[in-house]
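Section 5: illustrative case.
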């Protein structure tokens, strides 16, 4: 049996992080954006339109696990 160590890094093939926000009162959501200011602006507009003031912010990134070559460190 061979032991392999793995390294985890941001996956360059899956683009930039996606920023999004959702209202915790009515579950309306901004949709994902590469620009974090877009969901922030959506929150302010949503608050002005509905009076809802609580939001859930998410940032989605992708990782890629890569096997490390060479002998297992002690
Ligand atoms: Zn709302």
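Designed sequence:
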């Amino acid at each position: 049996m061979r032991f392999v160590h793995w390294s985890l890094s941001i996956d360059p093939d899956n683009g930039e992080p996606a920023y999004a926000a959702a209202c915790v009162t009515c579950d309306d959501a901004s949709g994902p954006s590469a620009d974090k200011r877009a969901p922030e602006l959506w929150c302010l507009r949503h608050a002005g339109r509905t009076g809802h003031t609580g939001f859930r912010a998410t940032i989605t990134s992708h990782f890629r696990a890569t096997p490390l070559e060479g002998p297992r460190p002690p």
